[in-house]
Amino acid sequence: MILEMKVPSPGESITEVEIATWLVEDGDYVEKDQAIAEVDSDKATLELPAEESGIITLKAEEGDAVDVGAVVCLIDTSAAKPESSDQSSVNTEQSDEIKTVSSSAVENVSETKTTYASGTASPAAKKILAEKDIPLAIIKGTGKDGRITKDDAVKAVPSMGTPAADSTRGGERKKLSMLRRKVAERLVAVKNETAMLTTFNEVDMQPIFDLRKQYKEDFKTKHGVSLGFMSFFTKAVVRALQLFPDVNSMIDGDFKVSYDFQDISIAVSGPKGLMVPVIRNAENLTFRGIEAEVKRLAIRARDGEITIDEMTGGTFTITNGGVFGSMLSTPIINPPQSAILGMHNIVERPVAINGKVEIRPIMFVAVSYDHRIIDGKESVGFLVAIKEALENPVEILMDNNPKKALEM
User: Fold this and answer.
1) What pLDDT is recorded for position 207?
2) Domains in the chain, start-ordered, CATH in brackets?
3) Is 344 designated active site?
4) Which of 44, 236, 309, 343 minimizes the number of CB atoms within 10 Å of its CB?
């Protein structure tokens, strides 16, 4: 029986996916539920499991965009599982006719392998590249086994000073994943469709340093997670959003939509690029609850297990460029949200404290916001509220009882 495997719907409103990577080869025997491919949607990368066991025939190539519901491979479920090589033996009494491969067949196999060799162009691609006067050596093939397809040739762009085919200098042309292309599209749209503005401030992190030094070991021993900066920032953001609800609002046509809850998106780096999972109802979480959720979401993003549902619906975003060494930036709003907080690295700087110069760990923070819905007064007040909470965490975030707040 031949089973047609179709692309399942990865989520609401998604009508097309892209074959990112085949994890099996044409003609392989696959087991039921074995991952056979990774497919990109505009929101996430998902694994495609085999629906049944059998011999697989691929019907799409890596890089192909296919509609949800389209057939991407066939599985011959009646095919027997081949024996392993160590169990197979050659029958020495087989006739020469069975054992011998004709010379013409060898030539055909050789010719086929040459056609699909890495860097080899199909006849159509070769003709197009010749007309463009572009050498094959500088084209990165996206077809099977690295072959240069007609589509590769059509998209190839000649440039001044194109290196010769025998150039020792290398380069790579790689198609962006559907997820990366969608991120690029959304970021450009934000710049073009919003009145984005950024306001800055600085935070003296010494009080948080002192708290973490005093409680972090006991906190980790009791709860199994580290007492990091994200719980303090998330708590400070939740409070500031409650004080300035316009920052927790979105534009929908001619309407402003405001929320009485705080779902905080956190930008994390994953194997497929930037992921923005959401901490749901952060206003109801303790320090331990926030740190545990941050760890859970970060691990799922790192392992490529994050789902679309876990990355949609946030009302505000926090991004931490400081982990990569960023001193200052203007973060781009995560649509359809109206604002985003950027954290940065912590550097010891001389500051004036009660008329005296002291060295303190200082972090620059930035809030980018949509000026169409958030006025300067609200944006500046919002960021000042975050600064106040972070510089007075015991009083403002812990109700003067850090042991209780940290559930010690």
Assistant:
1) 97
2) 2-76 (2.40.50.100), 103-155 (4.10.320.10), 180-405 (3.30.559.10)
3) no
4) 309
